[in-house]
Amino acid sequence: MDPLVVAELAKCDDGVPFPAKPHHVHSTWAKTFVSRPDLYLQPETLPEIEKIAKLAHRCHRRITTTGCGHSPSSLTCTSSWLVNLDKYNRIISLDDKTGVVVMQSGIRLYDLCDELAKHGLAMPNLGSINEQSIAGAIATGTHGSSLRYGIMSENVLSLRITIADGTTRSCSPEDDPELFRAALLSLGALGIITEVTFQAVPEFNLKWRQVIDADSKMLHAWDDNLWTQAEYVRVWWYPHTRRAVVWSADPTDEPLVDPPSSYYGGTLGYYVYHNLLYVAQYVPRILPWIEWFIFGMEFGFSNGSATQAVQHSRKALLLNCLYSQYVNEWAIPLSKGPEALMRLSSWLNNLPPTDPDHVPHNIPFSAKGLWVHSPVEVRVTDSSPANPKARRPNTRPYLDPTVETEPTLYINATLYRPYHHDPPSRARYYEAFEWLMRELGGRPHWAKNFETTGTDIEKMYGSELQHWRQVRNRVDPDGMFVGPWHRRYVLGDGKRLPYEEIDIGSTRVSDTAVHFRGAVPTGP
Question: Which residues, including other chains, have CB under 8 Å from residue 453's CB and lie 6 or more apart?
Answer without folding.
Answer: none
